[in-house]
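Exercise: predict the structure of this protein bound to zinc ion.
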Amino acid sequence: MPLQCTAFTEVPQVDGAAALLAIPEIEDDWWEVLPEVALCELGEHDETTEHAVVLWYNLDLARPRLWMVRWTDVGRFAIHRFETAAQCLARTPGVEECLFFAGHPLGHSWEVKDPVMATLEELPTSLRRRILGPKDED
Ligand SMILES: [Zn+2]
Ligand SMILES: [Zn+2]
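Solution:
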């Protein structure tokens, strides 16, 4: 299972707001879906793939389903791109839908693993319990 990419970015607020307001179905509390900082949600990928995170899901299934920001780091800066996209059509046998965009790199949303949790799972149970506390233990 791929580990989640650890890239993050400061989301340009003016460009993001302009892109959101251009969506006809956007809700009145649109600013709540525009974070100041976004973490890439994709599985680890190479530099030819842009980082990406879906910020809003359109409930109108006849329209592009996802509104997302993609970015590429260039030195200390990043080039951002806001866009709508179709959702990946993959489903688990239990009908869990993939939350990523169609054509995303390897690893559907349910396969991508939090790298911190993956590291913790490799620790001996006693040590993991000391870190997480007994409540979070299986
Ligand atoms: Zn990434
Ligand atoms: Zn997928």
